[in-house]
Amino acid sequence: MHNHQPISIIVLNSWKEIANYLGRGVRTVQRWERELGLPVRRPRGKDRSAVMAIQHELDDWLLQSSNNKKALHPDFNPMGRAQLQKNTGILLARTDELLSRSRRLWLQVNHMRQLTSVLRARQFGFGEVDNGISHFFDTRHFKPESSSPRQILEGGSDSKLEE
Prior knowledge:
- The protein has 163 residues and is mainly alpha-helical.
- It is built from six helices and four strands, in the order βααβαααββα.
- The protein has helices spanning 15-22, 26-36, 55-67, 69-72, 78-123, 149-154; strands at 11-12, 53-54, 129-130, 133-134.
- α1 (15-22) crosses α2 (26-36).
- It is rod-shaped and about 110 Å long.
- Mean pLDDT is 75; it is low at 157-163.
C-alpha cells in the first residue's frame, strides 16, 4: 500500500491575497510578475483580468528565486539599468552643454556691463584718461574680448580706437 497523503491546494484569489502571503505590497508583487515571472494565473487570459495563484507554486518560485539573489532584489532590472545608464550619459552631456552656454552668456553679459560703464562714463565726461586712469572707470582693467565701444555703437571695426 502507498501512503499518499492528499495534497491540499490553497488558491490565492487576488493581488491583495498574493501580496499578503508574500509579505509585500500589491504593486511590488505585480512588478515581480511583470519582471521576474511570479507565477500567477489569469482565468480569463487577459492582461488586466482577475488573478489567482496557487500557494505551493509561489513557494517553489520563492525557493528557486532564493538561489538567485538578484532576482529577489526589488531594484534589479537589467534592461532598466541599461536604459538608466544611457539616459544618465545623455543628461550629463546636456548638462555640460548647458554649463558651457551659461558660461559664454555670463561672459557676454559681463562684457556688456563693462562696455555700458565705459560708454556712460564717456557720455558724462568722465572718460578722459590721465596717465591710464579714468576719473570714473579704470580702463586698464577693461579689456574687451573682441570689440571696442565704438565698434559696438557703429557696428564696424576700428583698429585706431585707443583702449
